[in-house]
Amino acid sequence: MMEEIINNKPIGFFDSGVGGLSVLSRFREVLPSENIIYYGDTIHLPYGNKSKEELVGYARGILNFMQKMEVKAVVIACNTSSAQAYDSIKDKYDFPIYPIIQTCAKSIANTGINRVGVFATEATVKSGKYTEELKKYNPNIKVKELAGKSWVGIVEKTSINIVQDRNNIKNEIAQMLEFTPEKIILGCTHYPYLMDEFTKYAPEDLFIDPAEVFVEYIKSDLINRKIVNAANNRDSYEKFYVSSKPDEFVKNAKIFYDVKTLPIIVNNEY
Ligand code: DGL
Questions:
Q1: How confident is the model over 122-154, as pLDDT tens digits?
Q2: Which of 17, 192, 254, 259 is the most exposed place for a label (fewest CB within 10 A)?
Q3: Does residue 270 form part of some domain?
Q4: Lining residues, ligand 1, CB within 6 Å
Q5: What is the pTM of this model?
């Protein structure tokens, strides 16, 4: 019985910055009792233009940190890291690791859609991971992957020309709509922050935020593994860590997540 299981060890979440908080906020809705360690690798932002080798190095460093923090599981709340690094690190740790793309592909592919668009970072698009994973479950599915150039910069406020970037969104959505997708996957955890911008050019129900099915899967898997914290209380903790600029992290997170304590800087030795 779920009520009997109380495992207080924290669950680790990581992303390049505030993007993973769009996953964490959904996770909080389904599992409010879990203790959380969140790592934003802000010094390496954006991940989208990094090489595979760099991304594997960052992921390994963060996973080592999580291991030191004695987590019971790690959520890769970053599509880029899931696409480029997960395969290289997945067997090196003795706790479950949940990569967003590979975890969500099955339920998205099984919804019966046959034309799907994916907006993601350049590194994710380059990997072709979404197409590969979706085709595993629906070989006939047609997938168009497009990079949302500089979109992460708008969210993290590192963009030098926000007006130009917002214009790019309009053009990139138009380009995607030419493909006539039945759904468009937001394949970067920063993108849900831009929903107000997207819905100027396309209806909201065209977009899929994979985080929705992601957190449901994680919940059921934690229950199956008997490592869920089913304690019926809401006084769980959240500890935030970043590799640089903790104040900016809190500020950028603000519209979607109330980061109550200033993140601690952990200079990860990759
Ligand atoms: N939020 C991340 C993702 O889901 C990475 C964005 C970036 O830093 O480029 O891909």
A1: 999 999 999 999 999 999 999 999 999 889 999
A2: 254
A3: no
A4: 15-16, 19, 45-48, 78-80, 121, 124, 152, 188-190
A5: 0.96
